[in-house]
Amino acid sequence: MVHPLVTQLRFARSQFVYCLVGVSAEDAVRRIEPMNCISWIVGHLANQENAYWVFFAQGLDMAIGLNDLVGYGRPASTPPLDEMWAVWREITSAADRYLDTLTIESMSKHLVFDGKPLDETIGTKLMRNIYHYWYHVGQAHAVREMLGHRDLPDFVGDMSKAFYYPEK
Questions:
Q1: Cα separation of 106 and 125, whole Å?
Q2: pTM value?
Q3: How far apart are CA 42 and CA 29, in angstroms?
Q4: What's 54's domain CATH number?
């Protein structure tokens, strides 16, 4: 059975995708300062998943240069939306291969980099990733409102795939 936090991450991802349905390539690169543009947000979330669940967890870097383009603290950029969605899909698919292996016991372990454990447990990193998605769902929704988009989705959406099940 998939760990409940992994289920919640997948739900947060689905709501992120839902939030951005219908965004055009042109609107996705429009920046309303000081916020980043929508395409940057897509790449930024892919970058976090690449770091946590692909690079640290599996020793792979599927997106060389992505951190320079959309990483935390980097200069603003306006990458093409189709490229950011492609890298997001590729990275989240690779991340899922690792996430599907997580258990209750693994949540209190630390990923290791350069022979040293990272500062947060796997469970804490997973929660950070989930909350990061929700932060950017709100931000992307606000950007869409400021761009004049109407009839935006309501949140939180259909919870039928994200029921709470107690850890066993």
A1: 12
A2: 0.94
A3: 11
A4: 1.20.120.450
Tokens for 122?
Answer: 């796997």
Cα 44 to Cα 4, 76, 111, 154, 168: the distances in Å are 24, 11, 21, 23, 33
**Span 103-155, pLDDT tens digits:** 999 999 999 999 999 999 999 999 999 999 999 999 999 999 999 999 888 87
Give the C-alpha separation, 157 to 168, whole Å: 27
- Tokens coding 112: 């290791």
User: What residues contact residue 159 under an 8 Å CB cut-off, 6+ apart?
Assistant: 11
Q: Does a structural domain hold residue 39? A: yes
Which residue range forms the structural domain that includes residue 105?
4-146
Place of tokens 């590729």: 90
Q: How is residue 153 written in tokens? A: 């989705």
> Which residue, 20, 3, 7, is CA-closest to 139?
20
Give dist(CA 46, CA 91) in Å, integer. Answer: 6
What six digits make up the tokens of 13?
């991802």
- Dist CA 72 CA 138 (whole Å): 18
The count of domains in the chain is 1
Tokens of 31: 């920046």
- Give the E-state strand segments of the chain in sequence order: 110-113, 116-121
